[in-house]
Model the fold of this input.
Amino acid sequence: MKRALALLLGRGWSSLIPLAAFVAAVVGFVSLPVFTDRPLEIYDLFNLFEAYAQIGLITLGFGLVVIAGEFDLSIIGIFALSGVIAVQSGQHHPFLGVLLALVIGCVFGALQGLLIARFRIPSMPVTLATYIALLGLTRVIGHNQPSVSFENIDTTLWVQEPVLQVFSPRSLVVLGLFALTALVLGLTRWGRELRALGGDRKASRTSGIPVDRRLVALFAASSALAVVGGSLAAFNTGAAITDPGAAPLTLGAAGALIGGVALTGGRGSVVGIFAGTMSIVTLQQIFIVSGAEESFTDLTFGLVLLFFVAVNAPDARNGFVRLRARRRTSTSAAPKGRT
Amino acid sequence: MNPETSHPATRAGRSERSAGLELRSVQRSFGPIRAVSDVSMAVAGGSIHALCGHNGAGKSTVVNMICGLLQPDGGEILIDGEVVSLHSTYEAQRLGIALVDQELSVIPTLTVAENLMLGSVDEPLLLHRRRLRAHAQDLLDRIGLRCSPDMLLGDLSIGERQLVEIARALGRGAKVLLLDEPTATLSAPEIELVFSAVRATAAQGCAVIFVSHRLGEVIELCDRVTIVRDGLTVATLSTDGLHADEIVRHMLGELPAPVAKAPSDRAEPSLVVDHLTTPGLFEDLSFEVSRGRIYAFAGQVGSGASEVLRALAGLYPATSGSVVLDGTPLPVGRPGATRRHGVAFASSDRKGEGLFLTKDVRSNLLVSRLRALSSLGVLRRRRMATVGAEVARSAGIAPGRLRTPVQQLSGGNQQKVLVGRNLADPTVRVLLLDEPTRGVDVGGRGAIHQLLRETAVTGVAVLFASTELDELIELADTVVTMREGRVVAVYDGDATEAGVLSDITHGEGVA
Amino acid sequence: MTRAAPEQSASVTVERNADDRLPGLLRTGLRDPGNWVLFAVLVVAIIVGASTPRFFTIENAKAICASTGTIGIAALGVTLIMVCGGLASLAVGETAAVSGMVFLTMLGHGLVPALLAATLAAAVVTGIQGWVIGAWRANPIILTIAVGSILTAVGARMSSTKAVAPASEAFEHLNKTPLGVPVVVFALLGLTVLVQLLMSGTRLGRLMYAVGENRAAAVAAGLPVAWTVACGFVVAGALMAISGAFSAASSHTITLEGANQLTFNAIAAVLAGGTSIAGGFGSATRTLFGALMIATISDLLLLRGAEVGTQTLVKGLLVLVVVLLGHVRSRRSRT
Done:
């Protein structure tokens, strides 16, 4: 135990970020009564997990890709597209609808990963282009309607039915995927390799890590997570929204960054992403419950993200470092002999 | 025993022992350039074989072919007597080839234990934390590195990271161990650790290839040495009783003539540095440099020598201390402000931190003096043409080259462009150069040295850092030797190669 | 991109640098894979256009020009951001929209003051982002996503009671059509020339190319990196504001609805023209052609009955292809 603590502290305060995020989430949740003028109810916790289920998989997919040193902006596109596919093909058999979307999503993700890995093309412009293309494709498949309605009421009800009072089948699936990812990355060498890819790509290659294969798998995985998230979201709402806007990306990025994922790559964990996501949805719940205007919510999340981007900026601390150095100069001892 | 010389042809024809690595007349070209035209080398299992050659001789191409990064256009590579075709580094690793080079391939964000297991072909999918730790501890003990396997690699010194990398290669049970300039970053005791680990590995039947410039180490550690020049194997010698000069003669074709140093009088100190410290890199440096003098910092990678220059250039915001130029205090830790005050810097990494590769020679030469070439922000093309030609002339670059994209130039010419950027510029009063002739062959090196001497004569204070002993002795008026962030000694015109070498490898820093 | 070295002449004082004035696009022509798409699209447009009714008409040409206008001006801004290493701004649409709101609100003081106010506001807001990116190396994509969110909120606030209405009729000047061509087209052409001159003929422009290509080298050489990026973003912000003002003038109001579309269109236009998102390469003329290409494709699709979704899809795929080819180009030249 003592060694674990020494290890944790020895690694610097950055490993405490997930803990801090989690504490923030708990504090935020516990302070809900202030905004609702009534004591905490089980229902609040249920809503929290529902909100978590809505964006959790986007945050996870986004976060994992950033840990590996890449960016996947197309994740929102897949989110939207899979919602439409799942709804359209799954009107009678929702499971098949999700399966179809999953196949399409994984193939797309793998192809995208292949482009990025084999041809060494930076992921930012590629995923930006595919994001645009996917949004277009979603609209085309959705016949240019703002949403595609899901007729299968039974599924919609089932997906959000309370389980153990605080969960729902949807949130359990998302939690399950988080747990599965955490286990896979924590217990196998893939987790280490993921961080290596982001920590030093060149060194990873020369170390013998099959970088290309890992990247293809990674992008396929992030698409798969987006597919599950998008399908479940569409089933839950009873309709697939063809243009989700920029909000999911803002929330997803914020959740990942709060959870300790470094934009420069190589750092981050699933546990951290979970804690970060919970912080974000807790804040979201506070806004909803206190009846805040949408613009206020946008503003706050934008500022939160802005803060974390600034903190993540590699050279942000230079100014302070210089100041400290200047103070050290003026307080240094009397000059010693010259060389 | 007399050194034996054998022609590459006979070498290839002889039947070799079955174990080990052999290159038979390998060739490799890049477009019209023949990097390697005929290199043959046989390294038996259990022997330590050196590969020497000056920059541009084809050495790195050979190394890249052995570790699978490149494929030869002609000839064969044999492992244990069987011809192999190495299409990737992964394949090379599977066949038992391990590479350790200067560019560290260890990941700073992972722990030592994780790094030691990274990318290993027989690494299990599921982790056993205890097995991982035990494996790591075993490797660390074998190499004699005292550190905990749970430490973050980023917390180790450069030398220690290099040892972890070597430990990893040993841990993979390699059949062929390829070491490419591995000792550049190590201190003398660390070098000894590496040597004993390498000898132990060879004793177990591994074929070791040691690529290095450090001829003393080559003679000490290796059994045989193959010398490559202009893409050909020119000699393979036994190191018994071999003298470094002989290797140099094969590498160059002849011994280089020493460059005469221009005499210079002592002048008023123009640059006064007091208590310069960058935590973690170097401590408490104070010195004075006069106009027209060339001042050198000698030290291996990580000793603080190049870090001092980078700190003076303003690249480390954590630097404290005072720097005064001609009576004006300079801002510390701000590269833009430092340059405005006349302190120009040329990095040792010309591709990553020096040149703008897709831009042409003229743009690269003029990029830091654009203010003088424009009025109210608008560039004056005629002025740019004139000054561009002038600077090119000062730097010894052919005028026909001015519109060539820099990435198409040879290493030596690229270095001339990087150095030339700061020549013939009246705003430059102090010139800082980190490894001014890195990757430049002997001929080009002389030319750059001449340029620097001429610049110093015009009144510029020239400071450079280098790991090349002959360059330090030839070019510098004053040599400051450094090790582990401290000054070991200062030589005012009386530096000797032996003295400098001894200081930088095992000298004790002066408090 | 290789060029034969000019012959050595006895007097080397003035070199043949006339080529400097030609945009890179025309200099390299088909040798550059990044340009293939432009030429391919040109050919396709002519072929498909021939079989599309009303494509080769004056009215259609004018329509293409008009829609190129606002996108093109915003794209010029994105070009500057991309070249100096800022990747791209995902807040282009929001910046243009909010600037448009400022413009409409300030119209009571006159056309020119309103334009100046909007331009100044956008320049400052965008300039600050540029400084944070240039000095602190903040991630530009995530930063601009955050700013986009904030500006959306600001814009929603400004139009909270009702959609922003113009304070006077002065904006109609922007809707005039001298010689039958909308003012916005003249503005686009003029601004393209100005931005091109800025990029190739000024110290700031050269610095932007240097910083965008290799920031570490620029820092080591003592170049004013933060200032360069900030100035690039300042001009970009001003251009976004001008685009927003024209949009506001033509629709008589402005909302945040189409903000995302403008962002994507602008980025697509820049990338389609062959400017590299990695920085250090590109030009205003390239963006002009890119914007024209995007507008032509949108127009073609529209005339053939395609919906918005199809247009977006095609644009995305086009950008993808250009990015791939552009990457092939940069790898080829780095032998």
